[in-house]
Every structure is written in C-alpha cells, then in structure tokens.
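Retro notes
What went well: the complex prediction finally ran end to end.
Inputs used:
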Amino acid sequence: MAFALGNVYAAEELSLLTWSGYAPQNLVDKFQKETGITVKVTNSNNEEMIAKLRATRGAGFDLAQPSQDRISSVQEKYNLYQPIDYSKIQSDLMIDSMLEAVKKSTMVADKAYAVPFCWGTSGLVVNRKFAPNASDYADILNAMYAGRISYRLKRPTLIALAFSMGENPFAKYSDAMAYKALMEKVGEAMIAGKPFVKNYWTNGDALLESMRSGEVHVAMAWDNGGWKLHAENPNIDFVAPRSGALGWIDTFAIPSKAENVDAAYKWINFMMQPENAAVFTNAEKYGTASAGSGQFLDAEIKGNFERCFPMKAIANIKWYPPVPAKLEEIEGLILDKVKAAK
Amino acid sequence: MQIDLSVQNVTKRFDEFVAVDHVSFEVPDGQFFSILGPSGCGKTTLLRMIAGLTEPTEGEIEIRGQSMLGIAPNKRPVNLIFQHLALFPMMNVGENIAFGLKRRAESKSAIREKVDVILERVDLAGFGAKKIDQLSGGQKQRVAIARCLVLEPAVLLLDEPLGALDLKLREQMKVELKLLQAKVGTTFVYITHDQSEALVMSDHVAVMNKGVFEQIDSPKNLYNSPQTPFVAQFVGDNNAWSGRIRQCDQDAADVETSEGNVFRTKLREPLQSGDEVDLFLRPEAMLIQPDPSLAELNRFEVIVKDILFDGANSRLLAHPLDADTELLIALPQTRQFDYIRKHDKIEIGWDQKSGICFARS
Amino acid sequence: MKKQKRWGLYFFLTPVLLWLFLLIVLPHIDLLIMSFRSETIDGKAIWSPANYLNFFEEPIYWLTFVRTAVYSILVTFLTFVIALPLAFYITKVVAPRFQGFLLVLLLLPFWVSELVRVYGWMILLRESGVINHFMIKLGFLNQPVEMLYRDSTMILGLVYTSMLFMVVPIVSVLESLDNSLIEAAYDLGANMWTILFKIVIPHATPGIVSGSIVVFMLTLGNYLTPNLMGGKNSLWFTEQIYNQFIASFNWNQGSAFGFLLLVLSSLVVWLGLKLTKQNLRKVVQ
Ligand SMILES: Nc1ncnc2c1ncn2[C@@H]1O[C@H](COP(=O)(O)OP(=O)(O)OP(=O)(O)O)[C@@H](O)[C@H]1O
Ligand SMILES: [Mg+2]
C-alpha cells in the first residue's frame, strides 16, 4: 500500500524538519539536481520539533535536526527516532571525535540515534561602544545596562547564569532536587534583574535588528548572530563569556516512522561534503562536523574563530550533556515565574 | 389673544433646492392649525424647524414671544409627534410617557400621578405596564400624543400622525383628536396631505405647495373662495376648464372654454377680454336637468360615462358632447335621478356665482 | 406524514452532528482524558486530578489566569467604548454613500495576518521606530522612549485586533435604530448622555453583548499580540498552555490548562450575561 502510494508522486521527496538557515536554497537546488529528490523544509526549534514528532508518534518527517542533548530522554520515553545505520554514513568525511561524542550522548539501549551536523555556542553579543566591559553572563542582570539587555526565556539562559554563579548545573542533572534548588536560585536572580531587561527575545532576526538599531547593547545569543553583526558594525561582536560559552551540537536524526529513509541518508552525506558544508558555514557562520571544509571557508569566518575563540576559550566551552526527563518541567515553572514577575 | 407660535419669513435650502420658501404665519393660543400640502412640499421640514431639529436658512421663529434662534430641541417648549410616532420600543407605555418628565427631574410621585392622569385622558387607563408592541395602531397613536401632552408644551406639533392608520380608524381618530384638543386646549400645529383631515379638524388651515404657503384661511373659506388655482384644485374636488374671456364687465365675464362652450361667471379680480383663464367649478355646483324656469344658469349638455355610487357622496362621471374632458357632477341621493343610465345625454346647469375664475399665469 | 418529516430531520441533522462530533467533541475528549493523567516519580502513568490541583495550588498559574481574564475584560470594555461612537458615526452621522467605504477601511487591516499587523505596530512603536523618529524630528522628544513592551501597548494591540468584531455587530444593530427615536428623545428634553444610555445602548444591547463575547473570547485566546507587544511582563494564559505543551513536554498539564481556560472563560461570559441581565438566546437572534 505504502509502495503504491509512494509511486503516485513522480518526484521523490525528502521532508526535513530543521532550523531556519540549515537547508540553504542553493544546496537544496543542488541536491535535487544530483539526486532528483525534492527537499521540503519545515523550520522549527528543539521544543517544537519534539512536540511535532510526539503528536504524530514519529511520523510526517523523514529527517529531523534536534540538538544532541535533547535526543536520548525523549527517545527513551516516546520512541521518536530510529537507530542510525552508521554503515550508510560516509564517516571518512566527518570529524571523528565529534561523531563519537554524538554517538555516545544519543545512546539508548546500545543503539545510537544521531549524526552530528553543526556546532556553535551561546554566549554574549555585545556592543562594545556602550558596554566595553560586559564579559560574563552575569552582565545580563547588570543594572549598568538597564533597558539595554535582551535574552531568551529558555533553558540555556538558566544554565548560563548558573555557571556564572560558580555552579555547575550539568553536574546536578542527575539529582533533580539539587537541580531544582539551583534553578530556583537562578530564577530569583533573574527576577531581581528583570527591571533591567528590555525584552525577552523569541525571534533571532528580531534580536539582531534590536542590536543593529542600538536598542540593545548586551544580549545572550548565539555566536553566529554576533558575527553577522560584526561584519556590519565592528563595534558589535560575539564574546565568549568568562564562565564559558555553552556549546551545542545539532544533529541529524531519523524519525521512527520516516517514509523515505534512503533520501535522509543521502541528504546527510550530501551536507557533509566539504564544499557543501562550507557553503552552509559561509552563510550561517556555524562550524560543521565536515572534516575537510576548512579550505573552502571565507577568510572572515576563520577570523571569527581566531578572534573570539583563543585556545583557552575553546577549552572552556561547556558542552551540553543529554537532558534527563523531568528537568524541563522544573525549568518551565521557573521561567513562567520570571515572566510573571513584576 | 396670545400668539403661541409666530413664524416669520422662514426659508430652508438644501444646497440649491428650496424646501421651504419664505413662509410666515401666526398661531394664536389654543388653536388647531393645520398645514395641508402634497407629499414633498416641505411640511415636515417646516415642522422640524419649529421643533429645532433642523436649522432654518433664514427667518425667525418665536414661541410665546421668545425667539427660538439657537435654542436646542430639548430646551424648546414644543413637542413633536413623528410621522411614524417614534415610540421607544425598549420601554413600556408608562416609561414612554414618563420619559420627558424624568428629564425635568420631577419627583417620582408627581411623575406617576401625571402619567396616570394623562393615560386616563387618552382613554388608556391601566395600560402603563404594557409593551409598545402589544398595542393597536390607534392605541400607539394615543400613547404618542400622551407622551407629548404630559409635558404641557406651548405648541404640539403633529406630523401626519394618522398616516399609518387604516381608513376606518383614521376617520375615528380624526374626531377623537379634535375632541381631545378642545379638551386640553393646547395649541396644535398639524400637518397632513389629506384635505379632509385638515378641513374637519382645523380652526385654520394653511395650504402649502412647493415650499410656499398659498393661502391661510378657515376651512370654509378655503373651500368656498380659494385664492389660487392650486388651492382650488387641491382643496376638495373641482372641475377645471381652460378658456379665454370673450367679453367682460366689472365683476362678471363670458368665458369661452377650449371645447367651445360659453359660460357666464363672476370674477374675483378685474380681468380684460382676451385674457387666458382657468375656470373651476365644484361638482355640487352642477345641477342635473335644471328647471327650465331658472334663466340665469349656464347650460350645456354632457354624456354620462359612469355612475360612481358612494352614498351621500355619489357622483356622475361625464364628458361634454364633443370633447373628452372629464367632469364630476354631484348626484344627490334623492331618488329623483334614479332614471339616469350610462351613455345618457343629460343637461347640466350652473349658477354664475359658483364659478371660480383665475387669470392663467 | 409526521414520520416523513422526522426522517427529513435526521437526514439533514446527521452530517451536522457527525461533523460536530468528529471535529469538536472527539478532540476534546482526548484532551479531557489526557488532563486527568499524570506520572508518578518513577514514570508510571496514573489517573489523578493533580493537573487541576496544580492550577489552584501554584499561585503563578491562577494569577496568570486572573490577570489574563481581567485584561480581557478591560480590552473588551475599551473596545466597546471606542466601537460604539465609531459605529454610531458610521451608521447615523456619515452620508450613506461613505458608509461602505468606512466599513471597508475598518476591514482593511484584517486582510493581512495578525503577525504582520503586530509587526507593523512594533515598527511604529519601537525605540528606534517611526513614531519616535518623528517625535524627535519635530522636537516633542529629546531622546527616544520605548513604547513597546508595556501593558498599555499590549492593550492597544489587543483593542486594535478586536475592533472589527465589536464594530460590525454594533453597526448592524444600529442600522435598525430609527433616527426618529433619537430625535424624539431629543425633542422630549433628553440630552446626549440620556439618549446614549436610554435609547442607543438599550437598542444596541444584542449587538454589544454578542460583540463583547466574541472580543472577550478572542482576546483571552490570543497568543501573538500579548507575547510580541507586551514583552517581558505579558505572561498570558495561552502562553502557559503553550509552555506546558512545548517547553515542558507536559501534555497532561497543558490539557488541564486548556480545559480550565474553556470552563473559566465560559463562567466569566455567563456571569457577564447574568450581571447585565441578558440571555444568550436573545443575543443569538
Ligand atoms: N435633509 C435633506 N436634504 C435634502 N433634501 C431634503 C432633506 N430633507 C427633505 N428634503 C427635500 O425637501 C422636500 C420637502 O421634504 P419634506 O420631508 O418636508 O416633505 P413633506 O411635505 O413632509 O412630504 P411628505 O408628506 O411626503 O412627508 C423634499 O423634496 C425632500 O426631498
Ligand atoms: Mg413629511
């Protein structure tokens, strides 16, 4: 039956659930030329990806791109993905250590569920002209920048602030009570700092616009946003915070009821080709797991990494470990309280 | 006698169109004054200016000697009964009547008493709690009147209040309204396009045409001596001929009609021979088969086209021998003329004093 | 004969009932069941009213609901206060040939999606926005002020979004209001306020009530406008439902909140009808 239906459509299709910018149009076109497969892109974020797949119990998409720390717990609970057949991946194209790390962190019952795609960090994006001294997450609660601060009401902010308080939230992942106590402390600090916030951003482009127009001077955001702005205005740049940038890896994972698994593997291998990965990096300014893409990168991109990530800063990156279930509920309540506070 | 309402040279223009054109009149205290005119002649516009709902372009309106210039409708001592009554459907009968009193901040008990008294007066005692849509047409009528009368206005303005009623009820209300006015003694200014309403009820009637008052007079004078061709035709039925003066004296003339008959008629104003005229004659001025001994009569022959039986108001519809001008001839129900049939040829006679003659303008 | 009629009735009623059942009742049953499920610490699913109790025990939840409801009532009231004169102007003051034009003008913003409309407001009101720019150019301000992210801005946005749903029903009832009733009241000694409260509003009540119910419900269920225009203090109850479903993965809690929203908002509407002595049947007519 599925076979018959599949053949009704002349053109093969890959339904991709991903982040905005992760499937640039020129690569989608190139992929179609090479394989004849059309890519249907749906933009989303971690939370909505999980909610969408959960609602359909893993159907409707052939390939998803969740962050590596958000896979194992939902996999255990809702069985949203299918194990990756690593023999179908051209692992010689990839940075070995990254592939191994992702395999390890998405392991559920001896099977691994993801392949790394790209990585980046969250840290501060600062307008040096107005905030020359902003250097750590604590500065997003700093009265000195009152009315000029913006960040997301999402879990990375909680975790970042916990680090800047000298704590290690990742170490408390396994102890829900201790984690809750820590989050409450962070929540109180956020409520105390609330009067200084201009807004809690929800849309990356809107944040960039606020920084560009000078309405916001200090923000917690992704490194690539800072770099995009730096290219327009040298005063604005990404800053790896003293207590460590938060490193994340976004992956490829195949939903359990994917219809076109072959196409999914084809897309993964296609994106890992050095020149394709470089096209993505040059546009979005995120590094990828593709080993040989360095030679295809623009000078500006290399400059970004050299400027913001000296060896010491790279060593200091805090990589997200997998999130155990239930932590999101604890964080959700804290975030609601912050939002509701005066 | 006190003058309740005085209107001097009032004009209303809507852009280029003149709806009311230099109208002047006065209404003494306690009079029933009617304005009679065809639809669209400007009656409502005039009344609305008196009530204050429309601003006059020119002219003066005084009520009991007070100029109404710049005084808002809610401050004027007049009340208006609307063409479609405009009772408030969201209130019951009692609340409708109390509406104006409440605006004057009278005490609750005074209001209740006044409402009861006025309801009694319009024969609606005990109707206070009824809803408006539970009333008959005539009852609504009376509520509308009571709602205004209870305020004891200097002048009550009525805009064709009987227009929406059926014929029978209208006949009955005519009489009731006249009696009520006599009882309460309030000055009424009543507008209508129905001449019988105006004639039956009024002390004085103004006939209005195209924004102008043609004649202000008692009903009887209007009927018997109209001052303009329009009044002659509009008030009561009239037969009309157009003709030319053959020969004339001081107060009478021989008029040759367009059909070739020559009639002798009295003149209202001096005219000269050769003048074009319009000649009017009431149906009841025409005598059927007059006695040959009456020498003074104008006589001519007509053919009966139809017999319009309408009780005391029965008519013959006829036309002269060699023309199709329609003539209305009163047919007295004395059985004397029972022999007349359709297509009969009969002789008609009329007294020269009955003719009404106007120079054609 | 009678039997035949019944058949006809069933014939036409069945698809309607089926439709109602499939599209409205069934999903709600699913939600209802979910809202009574919760998990024990070791991950076992059990039946429990915990999700509902949570709402009442955690002040932030019910306070957010109260806040949302109070603001929705305020928005409804403000919308009414603006819509009534507007509708009156359109139906009674303006020349008839401009009426259609004005109504279309009112409708025009609704051709674009709510998101675009809200962004439009944000472009106007933000610190580096159009209004600030002109205020400074014209010398009314020395430095830009942030007009976004305040409760008042959020209310402005909500009122703007709701306006049409209040104006249209009021226009349609006012159209049936005979002008001579207003003139009669004026003639009988009433001033503007008396006319408004004794004639216009009583006549327009069915339209006002149905408009108010729609505006209240739409405002209560709005997500975009409070979130984008209200900014940091704008926690709206729908956002909490969203957070439960999306951010906390707690569908059970989210369903319970969804049901509470349904029940509590119906309660508010019912109370409103009682307080203004209206009944729904009259309004629906
Ligand atoms: N607001 C207005 N604007 C323009 N013309 C108007 C206006 N009101 C009335 N008119 C015109 O003035 C003339 C007189 O209108 P009015 O309502 O006074 O007539 P009426 O004598 O009361 O007629 P009816 O017996 O049919 O009620 C009409 O030709 C009408 O078209
Ligand atoms: Mg009229």
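What we learned: The interface with chain C takes residues 51-53, 72-75, 79-80, 82-84, 86, 88-91, 99-100, 103-104, 147-148, 151 of chain B (CB under 8 Å).
What to try next: split runs per interface for comparison.
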